[in-house]
Amino acid sequence: MAALPLAIRSDFVLTIFIYTFLSGILAVTFDLIFGFTGQLSMFHPAVFGLSAYVTHLLVLHARLPFWLATLPAAAAAVALAIVVGSICFKFRLKTFYFAVVTLAFAEMLRLIIVNWNSVTNGTLGLVVSGKPTIWWPGTGLVAIRGPVAWYYLTLAALGATVLICARVLQSWMGRAFGAIRLNEDLARTLGINVFRYKLVSFAIGNALASFAGGLYGYYTGYIDPGYLSINQSMEVLAMVLLGGQGTLTGPIVGSFVLTALPHVIDLRAEARAILYGAILIFTILVMPRGVVGTLRAWRMRRAA
Amino acid sequence: MLSLVAGQVLNGAIVGSMYGIIALGITLTFGITGIVNFALGEFMMIGAYATFALAERGRLPYPVAVVPAALIAAAAGYVCNKAFFRFTRGNLVNGLLVSIGLISVFESAVLWYWSATPIEMHFVLPGALRLGDVSLPKMKLVVFAVIVVVIALTYAALAGTWLGRASFAYAQNAEAATLMGVHTERLVTAVMLYSTGLAGLGGALYASLYSLEPSLGGVYVLKGMEAAILGGIGSLMGSLWGGVILGVIEAVGSIFLPTAFRDAYGLAVLVAILLFRPAGLFGDES
Amino acid sequence: MKRTDVIVASLLAGVLAVASAEAQNVVKIGQIEAQTGANAIYGWMSSQGTALAVDEINKAGGFSVGGKTYTLQLIALDTRGEPKEASVQLKRLIEVDGAKYIFGPFLSNVFLAIRPYAAEFNGKILMWGGATRIHDYVGTPGHEFLMRTWNWDAGPNGFGELMVDQLVKQGVKKIALLYQNDQGGKVMEDIYVGMFKHKGIEARLDYFEPGTKDFSTVLAKIAAWKPDYLFPGYADSYIYDIVRQATETGQLKKFFLVRGSLGPGLKNKDALDEYVVYVPKYFEEAEKKDPKVQKFIKAYRDFYKRDFPYDQAPLCSSSCYDHVYMLVEAMKKAGTVDDPAAVKRALMAMTYEGLWRLRFDDKGEEIFNFDVVRLKKGGAIEVSHINPK
Asked: Percent of chain C beyond pLDDT 70?
């Protein structure tokens, strides 16, 4: 994976991978909340979009360097996640209701961003011309420019996200998440503070997702309220389900498939969309646990 | 000002009743089978386009076109149930993904055939009724009446009949219901048929009021979900009330506050109500 | 033995040379528009026009430049209106397909996302689209590759400016604007709210969320303000409903549009008082008078095997049918198909007479003739043909 840009010099292919990694961060962090803790959150695009805006606005108006600007953005994401999460979890909203309430909050945030023209430029969006910089030994500050640099940066970001999630899951927090996913009431009777762990999972997932927002905005060069749309939620959900929920690699596989798919199918626009829908349907029916989930089950059966 | 508010309360109720008929489909499906049919909006869209085809191309009078259109939507629902949803019973999220896929398929197919040009039916019942200072389009009143009647009949049918009681038995405990002789598969199929047929009817009524585009179902399924939750999942009349209340809140909110935030008013009220009555306004607290 | 080897080898070489020469005699045109998704109507119309033109040119045997005959290949990609999709697609068109001529985009958000990448190829590609935001960049340094294929609303040749002046002459004092809240609506706000104020007409603006179908509340609010005209957005899919609902209750009966078609007006002609709209061309009339238009409509029907969409056809002018032919003309004039900069110079210097008379101003923004249609209650139609100097 790391050597890929050396072999393939195609901007087009590298771009697909870059978007795969960026969406992959969203998908993996969503899976932390959904696949591992069992909460169907529709709030992901909200923090994704919010942090893109906050990061860029801080760079623009407060003249902060990119990396420094991502921290307040992440803090805002965590704060919002805690507020929304507290409301939802305190009132013990179950799956469908939780999804609709998080959706409601995400939509309200989107409407605020769409209409707060003086700050966000509303639907016209913000054009991003800056570049994040990295301190490289020997050369000093280097701007991330061009597909190869972005490839490595996003790959590193994805890797870091996966590592953090893995550590969280291996710890006692991870086991609490699992217990909550399997049976919330039982977990409660076992003495697990369900409210607290749901909130922790929600906060961590949203905080890590917020870094994807800043990077995505700076890579695409354009931030608009579409980042917070319901479609984003659907896309992330599809990636996780297709790839395999409850795994860390599944969402990345799903992200790659769904990012690359539209560019591989060379059909008339409507036919391509029909094929896309058909692929979603058949994949989930044939592999209800997603690609990675099914592969693992198959391997376990082979071993038995 | 008063007539403005009064007129918009009435209009909001009418618009809300359309959310209500979708909400009824959602509450029936979810309450009885545990699946949220997120693709319900697509069946509404099929009903709308079928009505257009029958009434405009087929030259059928509008009231005659409505029933076959709803049946076509129900038939599509039956096919989807047998082919896809049957395998995602009880799995809310996989069912959701199937719905997302179906949305893509249906919308693109309709776009391919009808193209992106907006289409509109001829005006079935033009003109408005004047009540003092308030002006209400006649067709909207007809639509409202039809929806209220349909939902009330559904309520009466389910509350009184064996099928209705069986449905609630299944909802309470699927295994026990099966043991008691309820044909669960047939029951679920019946619910799917009816809810998609309802959506199709909603679409047929929609076609008499608004212009058609392939994505028309998206907004209604979301509002339908809001309305169903607001009214209380499992409560049939609740779905109508939920829809009406949602419609009125959006309309009245838009009078005094900017129209741009219309959707937010309904959402804010929904969240507030859910926090104090998690089962919705008329739902069962059990 | 050796002789046959040589003969076979040279035959093979000859075949290969011919084959690759054939492959080389193709000029690729990339098109990057939203063919599905919200606001697909613009991209859809553009693709309809280009595909028809490309087919006609190829069927006629292609075109010749510098002694060689070329055919066109159209690679039309669907952005679904998403900036991310468009950035990947543009890379594919330029890098993988090697297309030097890009048609589109019409959507401003797509344009803003792909502009930085396209600018890296300044001098090596030509990109011309209808997006309103292109106006901000066209003619600026570093953007020589860019042209805009639509009239600009304001300024001396601006159709919007002209129409607003007409309103002023009529003595209009108040106008209500009802736009959908997306980048198109916002750009219209930037152009028109200021323009009205500047010309002494009081304007109020209300936004609605895309996807709205019922306008009863906002129309009631607007009607209470008693405007002279209603300016109902820019997309037909909303205009149909707005005009119907406004006239149904008899509250608002006069409409003023700068984008959108005559369709909603015709549908509601008995309930409204007046419907004034800018259309690139009033096809129903043009079909009767202009043989070129007749030929075009017939060709459309034959090619697509469907009824000609009189309503939406006007949008065809934006980087499509006429533009394909114009591009070919420019290539002939420039004497090259491989040098987009030279082709652009040729485009800037020429006036093309097709369905429209097309030419570009010194920044690279298009100026073409258009119609303003005034529909009165009952269906009486008055068409003004405007030919900008």
From this structure: 92
Number of Cβ atoms within 10 Å of the Cβ of A100: 23
User: In this structure, are residues C241 and B210 in contact, taking their beta carbons and an 8 Å threshold?
Assistant: yes
In the structure encoding, which two tokens stand for residue C282, read together?
Answer: 């009033």
The reported pLDDT for the residue numbered B30 is 83
**A264 touches B95 (CB < 8 A):** no
Q: Does C214 touch chain B (CB under 8 A)?
A: yes
Burial class (CB in 10 A: 0-12, 13-18, 19+), B283: buried
* Subunits adjacent to chain C (3 or more Cβ pairs under 8 Å): A, B
- State the smallest CA–CA distance between residue B202 and chain C in angstroms: 14
DSSP letter at A124 equals G
When comparing pLDDT for C296 and B279, which is higher? C296
| Per-residue pLDDT band at C16 (split at 50, 70, 90) | very low
Sequence-separated (6 or more) residues with CB below 8 Å from residue A176: A187, A192, A197
Question: CB distance B88–A238 less than 8 Å?
Answer: no
Q: Provide the whole-model pTM.
A: 0.90
Domains and CATH numbers, chain B: 2-119+132-276 (1.10.3470)
Give CA–CA dist A29/A248, Å, rounded. Answer: 9
- Specify the higher pLDDT residue, B85 or A251: A251
Cβ-Cβ contacts under 8 Å, A277 against chain C: none
Neighboring chains of A (3 or more beta-carbon pairs < 8 A): B, C
Check CB contact under 8 Å for A125 and C112: yes
C248 to B115: CB separation less than 8 angstroms, yes or no: no
pLDDT digits (tens, 9 = 90+) for C101-136: 999 899 888 999 899 999 999 999 999 999 988 999
pLDDT at C156: 76
How many folded domains does chain A comprise?
1
Residue A258 lies in a domain: no
Residue B188's φ and ψ, nearest 5 degrees, are: -60, -40
Sequence letter at residue B261? F
- Asked whether B203 and B44 are in contact (CB, 8 A), the reply is yes
Distances (CA, A) of B203 to B130, B150, B212, C216: 26, 14, 10, 19
What are the phi and psi torsion angles at C382 (to 5°)? -120, 125
Place of tokens 């000029």: C27
Closest partner CB to B102 (pick from A96, A107, A277): A277
Reported as a single tens digit per residue, the pLDDT across C17-55 is: 444 444 568 999 999 998 887 778 888 888 889 999 999
Interchain pair C108, A224: CB under 8 A: no
Pair A228, A54: CB distance under 8 Å: no
Whole-number Å distance between alpha carbons of C115 and C95? 15
A61 lies in a domain?
yes
Structure tokens at A209: 């997702």
- C215, C178 contact by CB (below 8 A): yes
Q: A107 to chain C: nearest residue by CA?
A: C209
Q: Cβ atoms within 10 A of the Cβ of B276, count? A: 7
Residue A64 lies in a domain: yes
With beta carbons under 8 A apart, name residues in chain A contacting C85.
Answer: 262
Which structural domain, as residue segments, surrounds residue A212? Answer: 4-228
Q: Is the pLDDT of residue A158 over 90?
A: yes
Band of residue A156 on the pLDDT scale cut at 50, 70, 90: very high
Interchain pair B92, A96: CB under 8 A: yes
Predicted local distance difference test score (pLDDT) of residue B115: 81
Number of Cβ within 10 Å of residue B263's Cβ equals 23
Minimal CA separation from C4 to chain A, in Å: 42
CA distance A200 to chain C (A): 31
